[in-house]
Amino acid sequence: MFILPGHSSADTYHTVNSGDSLWKISRIYNTTVEKITSLNALDSITIYPGQRLLVVPGSSAGGDAVQAGMANQVSRNRDRIDEIIDYARSFLGVPYVSAGGSPSGFDCSGYTKYVFARFGIDLPRTAAQQYHMGQAIPASEARPGDLVAFKTGDYISHIGIYTGNGNFISATSSNGVDITPVYGSYWKDHLLGFSRIIPR
């Protein structure tokens, strides 16, 4: 067994399998997504088959060290989320282009993919794939930087980035990149839910 410096031989690791998510792994080992991301210095919840994750540290890791690591990771993620929101806002007014994925024109999922890619987070291309990549969270727990998805019938038809205070930013067919109330007259009837890409 490979032992990371500062960890004991009692450390428990999980090798990621196809279909695994951090939430699923956390349930298996009775831990949390936040602890796993902190222990492995993950900047997002993206994981890959074959990746080896420390899920339960041995006693020599020390509870205080784990807590300190989690606090530092939370602080880094908050700073990163602020940067993501600022970067997303820099494209306000960029026109909507079907299948667009650059500052010359975006569609909704092309826009979110482009913004997150700037920070090393590789989102899939479609709105549905992006929404399901993250961890679904209740609206009451939504925070800036979370994805917010909308549906038409059973089809996930739109996605954007929650900016806080009940608003989200997205590339819309009517106004291009724009900030809109989640619970506005149109969007509230199509709201599917929120999905967390960056652990808190």
From TrEMBL:
Keyword DNA damage attributed: no
One protein family per Pfam: NLPC_P60
Protein family (similarity comment): Belongs to the peptidase C40 family.
InterPro entries named among the record's database cross-references: LysM, LysM_dom_sf, NLP_P60_dom, Papain-like_cys_pep_sf, Peptidase_C40
Single GO MF annotation: cysteine-type peptidase activity
PROSITE patterns on file: LYSM, NLPC_P60
A biological-process GO annotation: proteolysis
Tree of life domain: Bacteria
Highest classification ranks of the organism: Bacteria, Bacillati, Bacillota, Clostridia, Eubacteriales
Keywords of the record: Hydrolase, Protease, Repeat, Signal, Thiol protease
Domain NlpC/P60: 78-198
Name assigned to this protein: Peptidoglycan endopeptidase LytE
Domain called LysM: residue spans: 12-55
